[in-house]
Write a structure and sequence with these properties.
It catalyses: O-acetyl-L-serine + hydrogen sulfide = L-cysteine + acetate. Pathway: Amino-acid biosynthesis; L-cysteine biosynthesis; L-cysteine from L-serine: step 2/2. It holds the Pfam family PALP. GO terms for molecular function: cysteine synthase activity. It contains eight helices and ten strands. By secondary structure, the chain is an alpha/beta fold. The strands form two sheets. Strands 1-2-10-7-8-9 form a six-stranded mixed sheet. The radius of gyration is 18 Å and the shape is globular. The relative contact order is 0.17.
Length: 290
């Protein structure tokens, strides 16, 4: 028995069967909403804080700051509370109210600003001027290393090494980078597929970054293919996952699933795993399920 952070990881891998008819193509969802703070971001949040403590960069009682679109912030808020650290989370004002309330429930301060780029600039400037420690998930190798250590090995184990395609939304790109490193280390023929919004779309948790804000941890050579996803397609697939498969997740998961189906329709056989990033109850105040 341990504390709640010991419950992070080892999330279920469940088969999705309602959307295609080829018995030689298997689709599985990695249910990251089953993590204690409700998303795939529990993994890098824990690894970023724990690794910084081990290096001596931070200690109990220190002040931290991080820019987030939501899920990383919630996970950091939970973990910072356990390590008794003060945390300020800087988030776009368009974020759902559930996110802010959850972060505050864990004891964190929330600052709402115009958009994600402004949030990132604010956090970096405050860290530089006031000496607050910034975790900087966009440039921190501890982000993707969490998936090298945990998510990738779990997927390899739970598919008995039979995975042929891995599909993930791309935000900070930590999830796709870490899983690519591990899975291609096991079998270089595994195809790594990322998804991003189309130019005119806005999908929470997936970004099409301006060049100057592209995460420093991103390495394009580790992604075999990027699929553009329309906002409405992401919404539709999130709704269908809930109604047909009982998988209640957010719009970024809908986007990843849309890309997954595109891949499934193109291949004759294979085992596709996509990341179901979080839980749908994080979006109930939006019109995602309205």
């Amino acid at each position: 028995m341990g504390n709640i952070i010991d419950a992070i990881g080892n999330t279920p891998l469940v088969e999705i069967t309602s959307f295609h008819n080829n018995p030689k193509v298997k689709i599985y969802a990695k249910l990251e909403g089953n993590n204690p703070a409700g998303s795939v971001k529990d993994r890098p949040a824990l690894n970023m804080i724990r690794s910084a403590i081990e290096r001596g960069d931070i200690k109990k009682g220190d002040k931290l700051i991080e820019a987030t679109s939501g899920n990383t912030g919630i996970a950091l808020a939970m973990i910072a509370s356990i390590y008794e650290m003060e945390l300020e989370l800087v988030m776009p004002s368009s974020s759902t109210r559930e996110r802010t309330l959850t972060m505050e429930a864990f004891g964190s301060k929330v600052t709402l600003l115009e958009n994600m780029e402004v949030c990132r600039d604010y956090a970096e400037e405050k860290a530089a001027k006031e000496g607050v420690f910034i975790l900087n998930q966009f440039a921190n190798p501890d982000n993707y290393e969490a998936h090298v250590k945990t998510t990738g090995p779990e997927i390899w184990r739970d598919t008995a090494g039979k995975i042929t395609h891995f599909v993930s939304a791309m935000g900070t790109t930590g999830t796709i980078m870490g899983n690519s490193i591990f899975l291609k280390g096991q079998n270089p023929n595994i195809q790594i597929v990322g998804c991003q919004p189309t130019e005119e779309s806005s999908i929470p948790g997936i970004r099409r970054w301006p060049k100057e804000y592209l995460p420093k941890i991103f390495d394009a050579s580790k992604v075999d293919r990027v699929i553009d996803v329309d906002q409405q397609d992401a919404i539709d697939k999130a709704r269908l996952l809930a109604k047909k498969e009982g998988v209640f997740a957010g719009m970024s998961t809908g986007g990843a699933f849309h890309a997954t189906l595109q891949v499934a329709n193109e291949i004759e056989e294979g085992v596709i795993v996509f990341i179901a990033c979080d839980r749908g109850d994080r979006y109930l105040s939006s019109d995602l399920f309205g």
